[in-house]
What does this fold into?
Amino acid sequence: MLRINGSVVVRSIVNFIRSFIHPPIEGVVLGLSGGIDSTVTFYLCVRALKSHRILALIMPDSEVTPSEDTDDAIAIAENFNVKYHVIDINPIVKVFSRRLPNFSFEANVPCGNLRARIRMCILYYYANLENRLVVGTGDKSELLIGYFTKYGDGGVDILPLGDLYKTQVRMLGRYLNVPDNILRKPSSPRLWKDHLAEEELGVTYDVLDPILHLLVDEKLSEVEISEKLKVSLNLVLRVKSMVERSQHKRKLPPIAYLPQEAFAY
It folds into this structure.
């Protein structure tokens, strides 16, 4: 159902990335986590641009991020001779913890979103400093269900993987010869210790992606999807609710447009 033509996908995304790199834009900066999405995005950037036009920021929280993720990210950048910085965001998080009243590291979602927003700030610091665009690493599955931090990993300039479901990103990773250890790695935003995406969502991407495809792309009814995929109707309804409740993340903030008489004085 979700098979892709690897060569067409790569050619299209490479052209997409290149189309944004023109003066005064000098190149791109992206967060490289050692996970599947950021690695595939990095591989596509390498195909699209010369190495000096790419800057990879590896931003672990030393008390949360597994060391193997950082090691994997470093190995990927070095393998392609791409400049990178390793920036431990833990000291920055600690400053927030000392300054915010009632701060609690036990509050996973608020603290996790704070980490994502700190990373966004760092990405844009380097983007501004070096006239680069921030390349987002989010995929279609995450965008549709709102599984990203508003003004965190959702705060980017371009989204090369935005039309590919998570399962398709893994297919593309195999096509691009991404290392097996990264292909097999469970998806995780690493926003808190032992954080796993499918565990938090309560559904695997192998199940979620076909539901999203039939719901959003094929416009099938909830009952038709349930019958076609042989999954519970309640699950389909829950996925639909995730899409609907996260609409605000995919739109600019609403503006309070005023009547003409408000400007008559």
